[in-house]
Amino acid sequence: MDINRYKSFFPFIISIVLFIIAAIFALTTLLGLDDPVEKSENSVEVNLPVVNWAKYSNLSKKLDNDSINIVK
Questions:
Q1: Domain boundary assignment for the chain
Q2: Spatial separation of the C-alpha atoms in residues 31 and 35, rounded to whole Å
């Protein structure tokens, strides 16, 4: 077998192998999306910092009457 004859096909063969690996990975990921999620995996705890608005009232740019109205 003459290796120089097939040397130009190596990048093509490698790209096909990598494409097949990527397609298998994408297919397994797609099929795994329908699996039910447990409640313990679905719960998220978010801890936000408490903002002291009095600290920001001394800045040079002030709102009317030095108050900050939070719209809910």
A1: 1-34
A2: 8
- Residue 59 amino acid letter: L
What is the number of H-type helices and E-type strands within the chain? 4, 0
Contact 57, 72 (CB under 8 A): no
Q: Rounded to whole angstroms, how far apart are CA atoms 11 and 56?
A: 61
Token pair, residue 40, equals: 């313990």
- Whole-number Å distance between alpha carbons of 71 and 49: 19
Q: Give the pLDDT of residue 16.
A: 97
pTM: 0.46
